[in-house]
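Q: Fold this one first, please.
A: Sequence and structure below.
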Amino acid sequence: VWNPNGLLVYVIRQGAIWEFSTTTTDSRVLHSAASLSHLAVSPDGVYLAFKEGSSIKMLRLTGNGTTPTTL
């Protein structure tokens, strides 16, 4: 799923949510779990929502925090 700014894309790969830059070769793992699906980015690009098992979680993309919140 694309970030609204067009500079970042998020994918689920190898049991993790990855962030890839579209302008550089940078990438990073944002969150790892056994059962991930259904990525969605908020319109302002600040949050990433996803399904982990039977839970819906939200991850703040700005700042240094990488601990998701269960909704």
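Q: Good. Now the second chain.
A: Here it is, same layout.
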Amino acid sequence: AKVSGRTATWKLGDLAPGRSVSKIVRMRMRISARGRSCNVATVTAAEFGSRRARACVRTVTARRPVTPVTG
């Protein structure tokens, strides 16, 4: 992936009709992060131009301390 600021870009090349590609992205958030965070994906193809999808989550502060899990 090419990363620039808060954007990661993949060039997937040509895909045959009916084929798909999946990418897994792991992100970290500050423990103090609150509010709404959104992930936006955009795909562009010669046949249909661009399409965009968006998924959002709401982050809240834990009511009690969370013990980190390691290992």
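Q: Anything worth noting on the second one?
A: The beta strands are 2-4, 7-9, 35-45, 49-59.
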